[in-house]
């Protein structure tokens, strides 16, 4: 317990799994946690004079089963092992923490999702708005760094979705304010974030004298964050990280920028909501973990360089046409396995024979892929083929060494092929044929010496012996050595028997040791190949992604977009890639054409009834643009798209109540971020801006935002969906603003959504109709119609002030007019009360009462009437 307590003191914030013999034990508060999270029995242990302590444990071989449960439940786990062989130990066995497992440092299969990276992030607060930031996935070796302002840091955190975020201890409050409270975080001491210390760590890791070769030398803040990550890995007992061999910078200017709201608003990845219909789900037809992981990155970091985008698009086009090559390549990629993660496990000493063989088999698939690429008549594929390196020597060596179906761990042995080591073969022979050997030896010697009573025996004192009865003593050859005399027999040993004995005793143990040694050598050889294997992983990922694009283009009839350096956007028959996949059976997505250009139609004001498809149209424009910049074909018959550097969306209302902000505040924050970051090549999508406040404030804000976007120097292409039909007035005033609406048809008291985009504004929102569709009480709907009819009875003056040039917001007189109307609606005559809700009942009561002539009513009739009225009330 003293040893336990001393170790626990060093890891106070972790659950300590303390190895005792064949068990991992937990004590005290750790035991309470373990028993609750793992569902194992909690017992008490009496430590002599000390008070009883809680105890909960599990067998050591069940570590894999239990470890991930603790980590998934949000605990840091320190694994404390026995550091020496208990048989050799003098006194208490030496113990120490061999690994600390946290969400961001997990390498265990059960903690990792094959289709997603598991990033550990480090955020270096330089000041309140300047950050260095780094991301590392130790399960693959991918390492990135960047630096920038809060907005950029936030966007990167959203894009990488790290499992754990590290930052300076005293920045806890600011971190929460800036980045929310949902992420798993851990804080480090301030001193860690020193430039020279972190740089040293990086140089040591990469074994270089400078960081110039990685092109990151100038990013001091980013490097500090990256070094912070390495410090943490050292601190959490992760010493073997040879697979982390380089670091890449993420340059904001290389990618089409989407702010964090856009990534969320467009529902690209889905985040915590596993059931969300996302673009990722629609597009992800990758067949390898490398491809799945890379696709996510391509989605949140789409390209901006036209040449590179076109390269990808051309390759997709080529693969669509290559009907034979495509399935062949897909088959090899599918069979390849996760070579990236398999290779990363080698330096961390976490790979077993089964995984190593899997890696070799993956490399064989790489060889087949390489051949197909090199044989193709596509220059890009040939280039990819050239970069692949199947490491044939290594793959062959692994396959020649390991048996066909090896076990996952080395403990059980019997995974090295026959013929690899003569010594091993002989030992196995001995172990399996030990008895037969002895019988054979006994027979041979009996024959040679003529001692018919010869017996082979064994005892613990001097091992194997030959026993001869006294009557045959004289026949014993001179070279036999006498060891023991019994009453009626003598026992002898021979050099041959001794040699055999040495071999057979502990043959099993030796076999295991020998196999482990051979395996160890294989791993050492493998270490030399980490770099080409990682490159292979990357190329396989790229191939998988472009093949996936080809596949989805074929399945969902996507077409090749055309990117250009001009300003206009023209989409013919565009569709929403996600909605069209999830429409109820029998329904078809209605495509739409969309044109935006900087001379005539820079900003479209889009109106139309609720549910008509305004948001869908906005999002589809953004998603088509995004997909094109990923190098993927798009859901449209034709798409001519300007090279875009930013997509901004403000779609729908969203709450950040836990973050302490109101819906409207969030809306304004997001819009402000758009307006402050505009570029001439931005695409801006605004959906119902201003709806989170009073009508007048809302219209005024929406109105002036539209004007701002028209008048600002960047003149971004903009789609502006709104229910404020007043905004249609803007078309008259500004040369590049155009009104469009989404069509519908009224049929009786129903509306039919035609979902076609047409020029001109619309005047109705049909909100009440949608409320009816949603199942609101009929009386409420009637009342809403009544109120609406009253409000619409005469036009409200001054909304908007059409003649005003500068700020055509509604006039004070207009505001007064509306207030008066609302007041009128609120008068007793209009009040929504129980009488309205039950109006039918009361109508009939009124009619009955009106028909009564009190002067002629007898008392009995009056009572009967009263009873009738009561009945009516009772049935309402
Ligand atoms: N072009 C289309 N073809 C088929 N279905 C569509 C189309 N556009 C939209 N829809 C369907 O209609 C639903 C409502 O669309 P959307 O949310 O875009 O309407 P909206 O006009 O923005 O409504 P609101 O003003 O109430 O927010 C979508 O969820 C989708 O299922």
TrEMBL record:
Q: What span is annotated as the signal peptide, if there is one?
A: none
Q: What is the protein name given in its UniProt record? A: DNA mismatch repair protein MutS
Q: Quote the InterPro entries the UniProt record gives.
A: DNA_mismatch_repair_MutS, DNA_mismatch_repair_MutS-lik_N, DNA_mismatch_repair_MutS/MSH, DNA_mismatch_repair_MutS_C, DNA_mismatch_repair_MutS_clamp, DNA_mismatch_repair_MutS_core, DNA_mismatch_repair_MutS_N, DNA_mismatch_repair_MutS_sf
Source species, domain of life: Bacteria
> What's this protein's family per the entry?
Belongs to the DNA mismatch repair MutS family.
Indicate which residues the UniProt annotation says bind ATP.
608-615
Cellular component (GO) terms are: cytosol
Enumerate the spans annotated as DNA mismatch repair proteins mutS family domain.
Answer: 682-698
GO-annotated molecular function: ATP binding; ATP-dependent DNA damage sensor activity; damaged DNA binding; mismatched DNA binding
Q: From which source organism is this entry?
A: Flavihumibacter petaseus NBRC 106054
């Amino acid at each position: 317990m003293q040893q336990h307590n001393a170790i626990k003191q060093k890891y106070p914030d972790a659950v300590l799994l303390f190895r005792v013999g064949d068990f991992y034990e937990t004590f005290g508060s750790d035991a309470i946690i373990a028993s609750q999270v793992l569902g194992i029995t909690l017992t008490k242990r009496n430590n002599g004079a000390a008070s009883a302590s809680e105890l909960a444990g599990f067998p050591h071989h069940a570590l894999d089963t239990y470890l991930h449960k603790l980590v998934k439940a949000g605990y840091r786990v320190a694994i404390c092992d026995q550091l020496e062989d208990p048989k050799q130990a003098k006194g208490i066995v030496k113990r120490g923490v061999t690994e600390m497992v946290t969400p961001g440092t997990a390498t265990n299969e059960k903690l990792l999702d094959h289709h997603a990276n598991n990033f550990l992030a480090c955020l270096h607060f330089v000041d309140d708005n300047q950050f260095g930031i780094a991301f590392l996935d130790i399960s693959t070796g991918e390492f990135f760094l960047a630096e920038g302002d809060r907005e950029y840091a936030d966007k990167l955190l959203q894009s990488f979705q790290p499992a754990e975020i590290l930052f300076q201890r005293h920045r806890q409050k600011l971190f929460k304010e800036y980045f929310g409270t949902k992420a798993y975080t851990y804080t480090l001491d301030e001193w860690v974030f020193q430039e020279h210390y972190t740089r040293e760590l990086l140089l040591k890791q990469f074994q270089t004298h400078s960081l110039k070769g990685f092109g990151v030398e100038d990013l001091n803040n980013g490097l500090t964050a990256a070094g912070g990550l390495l410090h943490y890995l050292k601190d959490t007992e992760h010493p073997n990280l040879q697979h982390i061999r380089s670091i890449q910078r993420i340059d904001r200017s290389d990618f089409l920028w989407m702010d964090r709201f856009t990534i969320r608003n467009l529902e690209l990845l889905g985040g915590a909501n596993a059931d969300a219909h996302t673009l990722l789900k629609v597009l992800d037809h990758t067949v390898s973990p490398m491809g799945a992981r890379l696709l996510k990155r391509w989605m949140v970091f789409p390209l901006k360089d036209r040449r590179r985008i076109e390269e990808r698009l051309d390759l997709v086009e080529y693969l669509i046409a290559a009907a034979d090559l495509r399935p062949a390549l897909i088959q090899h990629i599918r069979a390849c396995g996760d070579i990236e993660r398999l290779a990363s496990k080698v330096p961390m000493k976490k790979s077993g024979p089964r995984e190593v063989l899997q890696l070799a088999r993956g490399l064989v698939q790489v060889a087949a892929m390489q051949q197909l690429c090199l044989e193709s008549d596509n220059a890009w594929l040939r280039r990819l083929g050239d970069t692949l390196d199947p490491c044939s020597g290594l793959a062959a060596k692994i396959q020649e060494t390991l048996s066909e179906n090896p076990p996952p761990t080395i403990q059980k042995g019997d995974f090295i092929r026959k013929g690899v080591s003569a010594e091993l073969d002989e030992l196995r022979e001995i172990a399996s044929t030990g008895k037969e050997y002895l019988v054979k030896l006994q027979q041979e010697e009996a024959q040679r010496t003529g001692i018919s009573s010869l017996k082979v025996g064994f005892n613990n004192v001097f091992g194997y012996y030959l026993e001869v009865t006294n009557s045959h003593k004289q026949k014993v050859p001179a070279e036999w050595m006498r060891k023991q005399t019994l009453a009626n027999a003598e026992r002898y040993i021979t050099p041959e028997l001794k040699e055999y004995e040495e071999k057979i005793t502990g043959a099993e143990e030796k076999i295991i040791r020998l196999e482990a040694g051979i395996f160890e050598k294989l791993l050492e050889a493998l270490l030399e190949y980490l770099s080409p294997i990682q490159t292979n992983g990357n190329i396989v990922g790229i191939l998988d992604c472009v093949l996936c694009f080809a596949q989805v283009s074929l399945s969902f009839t996507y077409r090749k977009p055309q990117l250009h350096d001009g300003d206009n956007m023209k989409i013919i028959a565009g569709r929403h890639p996600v909605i069209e996949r999830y429409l109820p059976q029998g329904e078809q997505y209605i495509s739409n054409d969309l044109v935006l250009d900087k001379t005539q139609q820079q900003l479209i004001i889009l109106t139309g009834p609720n549910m008509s498809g305004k948001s869908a149209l906005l999002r589809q424009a953004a998603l088509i643009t995004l997909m094109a910049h990923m190098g993927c074909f798009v859901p449209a018959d034709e798409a001519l798209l300007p090279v875009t550097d930013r997509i901004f969306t403000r779609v729908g209302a969203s709450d950040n109540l836990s973050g302490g902000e109101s819906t409207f505040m969030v809306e304004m924050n997001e819009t402000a971020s758009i307006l402050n970051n505009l570029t001439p090549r931005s695409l801006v999508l605004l959906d119902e801006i201003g709806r989170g406040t009073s009508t007048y404030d809302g219209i005024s804000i929406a109105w002036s935002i539209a004007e701002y976007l028209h008048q600002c120097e960047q003149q971004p292409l903009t789609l502006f969906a709104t229910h404020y039909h007043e905004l249609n007035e803007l078309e008259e005033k500004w040369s590049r603003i155009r009104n469009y609406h989404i069509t519908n048809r009224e049929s009786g008291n129903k509306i039919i959504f035609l979902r076609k985009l047409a020029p001109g504004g619309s005047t109705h929102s049909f909100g009440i109709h949608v409320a009816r569709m949603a199942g609101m009480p009929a009386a409420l709907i009637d009342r809403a119609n009544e109120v609406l009819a009253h409000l619409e009875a005469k036009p409200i003056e001054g909304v908007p002030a059409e003649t005003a040039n500068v700020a055509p917001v509604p006039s004070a007189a207009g505001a007064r007019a509306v207030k008066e109307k609302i007041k009128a609606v609120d008068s007793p005559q209009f009040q929504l009360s129980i009488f309205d809700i039950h109006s039918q009942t009361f109508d009939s009561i009124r009619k009955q009462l009106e028909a009564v002539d009190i002067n002629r009513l007898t008392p009995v009739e009056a009572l009967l009437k009263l009873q009738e009225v009561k009945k009516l009330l009772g049935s309402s």
